[in-house]
Amino acid sequence: MAKFMDVHHGMKGITAEQLRAAHQADLDIESDERVHFERAWADPESGTVYCLSEAPSAEAVQRIHERTGHKADEVHPVPLTV
Amino acid sequence: MAKFMDVHHGMKGITAEQLRAAHQADLDIESDERVHFERAWADPESGTVYCLSEAPSAEAVQRIHERTGHKADEVHPVPLTV
């Protein structure tokens, strides 16, 4: 398992409720891919969302996001953390 | 005070020790601007570093990063969190 940071662009105007609902949709099915989405942060003004997860691969992260209708624009492994 | 996510590109090959040292340099002076850098995540392969902070403004975050020699390429307020 490894940590991943994924980034979504084009989410301008996202609300707290929409972020919560999107995150919950991921949580509801994440175990199918042994992914866990830990946190998400959103900037409604630039339309950027960052999701931190633990997962077996970047592809597993992306498969969950695709199934819940919000494919990530970038998925980066982040093996280093402080 | 607000949350910010800042992003650094071009950090290919960054090591755990370099990330730790850069983060510590920020911590050492962050109080000058009432910033607190909470976490940082790095992808040495793409050369991307993400820093999560609490700060009075994006400019305050950037001033700390500039003084420690690693100006951020993007600083986003992230008012929404899950």
TrEMBL record, chains A, B:
InterPro entries noted in UniProt:
SCO4226, SCO4226-like
Pfam family of this protein, just one? SCO4226-like
Output this protein's name. Answer: SCO4226 family nickel-binding protein
